[in-house]
Design goal:
By secondary structure, the protein is mostly beta strands. The protein is built from one helix and 21 strands. Bound molecules: copper (II) ion. The site of copper (II) ion has 4 residues, from strand 3.
């Protein structure tokens, strides 16, 4: 979902499940009534309802910050998250167009309810196909962890070993210049965190983003071919 900072948006959530649901707009500042916390969020006298099967709920907000966010179910979390009720949100500055050639969403999740049996997924895939990036350009990586309760260690590697990247944002907030400095391309991401990095591949080669869970037998590798 790509939104524009400062531009009001209305999103209709239609529940086609056989059980109630609610959707949380993770990291976005919005009125609590729309934020998917059933029985808690409110607007005047209205309390956030669960969205019943066959029903819908219209969410309205104006994203105040550009950055990387996510939406996800906030009801029956284990079952519905395991079934895929989540997705990325990118908020762009006005006038900026999302360019998938250099802007890359890498969303980590669990492909089921059981971290001991179900696979770790990258963009919905346990064996994600290679991405093809151009050398000589600045690429932005938007790392999102929505794997419930999983702490993930992520490293960007080339065939000859570790790479470096420049962190530019965390949870949708730009980093101050003294934090946005080139460093080893490693990051531990807790569930619900987003991290943005910039990388500048100089020459063709085979890269990969390796992600392993801390204390769980989970791993996923995203191949990246630099061309
Ligand atoms: Cu959340």
């Amino acid at each position: 979902m790509i939104l524009e900072r400062g531009r009001p948006v209305a999103i209709t959530v239609v529940n086609q499940l056989s059980e109630p649901t609610a959707v949380h707009w993770h990291g976005i500042e919005l009125e609590s009534y729309y934020d998917g916390v059933v029985g808690w969020g409110r607007r005047g006298r209205k309390i956030t309802p669960a969205i019943q099967p066959g029903h819908s709920f219209r969410v309205k907000f104006t994203p105040p910050r550009a950055g990387t966010f996510m939406y996800h179910t906030h009801l029956h979390d284990k079952v519905q998250l395991g079934a895929g009720l989540y997705g990325p949100i990118v908020v762009q500055e006005p006038g900026v167009t999302f360019d998938p050639a250099t802007d890359h969403i890498l969303l980590l999740s669990l492909g089921g309810e059981d971290a001991l049996k179900d696979p770790l997924l990258m963009n919905g895939n346990s064996k994600p196909p290679a991405l093809h990036w151009r050398a000589g350009k600045t690429h932005r990586i938007r790392l999102i962890n929505i794997s419930p309760a999983n702490v993930l260690a992520c490293s960007l590697l080339s065939a000859s070993g570790a790479l470096q990247w420049r962190p530019v944002a965390k949870d949708g907030a730009d980093l101050p210049p003294n934090r946005a400095v080139l460093q080893d391309a490693k990051q531990v991401a807790f569930a619900g965190e987003t991290y943005d990095f910039e990388v500048q591949p100089q020459a063709p080669g085979s890269w990969r983003l390796e992600v392993v869970a801390v204390n769980l037998p989970l791993k996923v590798v995203q191949p990246i071919e630099i061309q």
